[in-house]
Amino acid sequence: MSENRYARQQILPEFGPEGQQRLADSSVLILGYGALGCVHGELLARAGVGRIRIVDRDLVELTNLQRQIAFDEHDANSQTPKAEAAARRLRAINSSIVIEAEAIDVTPRNIEAFIRDVDVVLDATDNFETRYLLNDACVKFEKPWIYGGVIGTEGVTMAILPGTGPCLRCLMPDAPTAGSFPTCDTSGVLNAAVAIIASWQAAAALRLLVGSMPPQQRLVSIDCWNGLFNSFAVNKEDGCPCCGLRNFEFLEAKRTAWTTVLCGRNAVQVSPPQAVNLDFTALTERLQQAGRVLRGGLLLRFQTTETEMAIFPDGRAIIMGTTDEAKARGFYAKYLGI
Ligand SMILES: [Zn+2]
Q: Cβ neighbours of residue 240 under 8 Å, at least 6 residues apart?
């Protein structure tokens, strides 16, 4: 008789065989697979969540390894898409669950398809634009999501349960404006602080999945370096533009910025205004006239004497070696002709 891999979890009264079965029947979206996402994936795959969907737009870099525990030097040296490296690792951890991985940028155009058929969403994003978009989509479809963010030695988290409690815009009606909020580039980030917040989020998700509501929807703030823990009551606001008035401004924008300077990288992401479906074979033939093309996994790498880029099937490209958005867009236009 084979051993039950979940034996130590199943004997917890909070789980039991029934809870374990519920996990097996459930699905989770991990949005972003940076420092928080790595911890979410590990914990949920090992716990036996039946289907885990990973969506991340980025490639593994050496400076990620300090805190992004799913990746290693090989992933960084080969600049593997995070979604691809994560899927490989999670499948090796637990072959009895389904892992879906997409190396794609989440936008107002595609977010609904990613969240519609999952039970819970874990926030592992690195920017407020995406969190507000996620909040809109989750309130619209009444999907619970677990907010999390870490800067320096401090992190915050809150379970957001649309229909029963406050949403992100009840807490913060407007996103911080660009440049007004510290980022992991300007303030750094303690890996242990990430692990605590991500674990807190994973526990909230597991609790929801086994059918038990989190005790209270409060904003939790933890600074593990300075030994500080706080939690704050957050009210559901009747006048909240999102959950009160159901005005989904971020979701209805239905467009994305053309270019984004990527957090912590000397790189710019360029997205075409309309989703496309690139024919990699034809594109490889064209690009080979201008430089070196390498095809592997979910992407195509292209190198010339003046630039290097990773191109994804949906037309998105990451232009390396610059933070100049105009320059990046110039290279994109020159080689992809869009
Ligand atoms: Zn709200």
A: 166, 167, 169, 170, 173
